[in-house]
Amino acid sequence: MNLPNKITVSRMILIPIFMVFLLVDLPFGTFEWLGVEIPVHHFIAALIFIFASSTDWLDGYYARKLNLVTNFGKFLDPLADKLLVTAALIGLVQIDLLAGWIAIVIISREFAVTGIRLIAAADGDVIAASPLGKWKTVFQIIGISALMLYNIPFSIISFPFDQIMIWIATILTIVSGVDYFIKNKHVLAKQG
């Protein structure tokens, strides 16, 4: 396994650790930051999520720089992103920081796209993430991070940055999903 793929796998390994800090009511208490009370364990979860998300850029950088782009990496990298985002969305719904329907829309799109990727892979084709899909991921990460940080620092001026980012992420999720299905309808046509 090459370096970029090891970085991708490390992102997947961080998911259960992230979930423990997000969902388990650990006895760390709370602290006030810029006028907002935030549980320490949620803050730690946010830092883990942000770090894990940043490894997505890192593995891609090394894959291109060291010419280590592989079919395995093209498949594993978006899967790791989906697992991390799915875990975060479900966790945010559980702690009442995100509406369930938004999580369902985003997760449904991710499952559908992964399904098409698996069908293509069975035929020997690898479908890499599109630029629109990458932007969708960026906005999902920003929105999720802002929610976990209780909209700090934007809470100072009562600006709903976290909600705006999640709405943009949701819209991009839908648009990129439709775009993905249109561009890869031939994969489904082979099956029908």
From TrEMBL:
Any GO MF annotation of the entry: CDP-diacylglycerol-glycerol-3-phosphate 3-phosphatidyltransferase activity
Main localization of the protein described in the UniProt heading: membrane
Residue ranges of the TM segments: 12-31, 43-63, 83-107, 138-158, 164-182
Source taxonomy: Bacteria, Bacillati, Bacillota, Bacilli, Bacillales
Keyword Transferase found: yes
Family label: Belongs to the CDP-alcohol phosphatidyltransferase class-I family.
Organism superkingdom: Bacteria
Subcellular location: Cell membrane
Cellular-component GO terms for this entry: plasma membrane
Catalytic reaction equation(s): a CDP-1,2-diacyl-sn-glycerol + sn-glycerol 3-phosphate = a 1,2-diacyl-sn-glycero-3-phospho-(1'-sn-glycero-3'-phosphate) + CMP + H(+)
Lipid bilayer topology: Multi-pass membrane protein
Main EC class the enzyme belongs to: transferase
Sorted UniProt keywords: Cell membrane, Lipid biosynthesis, Lipid metabolism, Membrane, Phospholipid biosynthesis, Phospholipid metabolism, Transferase, Transmembrane, Transmembrane helix
Entry keyword annotation includes Transmembrane: yes
EC id: 2.7.8.5
Function of the protein: This protein catalyzes the committed step to the synthesis of the acidic phospholipids.
Name under which the protein is recorded: CDP-diacylglycerol--glycerol-3-phosphate 3-phosphatidyltransferase
GO biological process: phosphatidylglycerol biosynthetic process
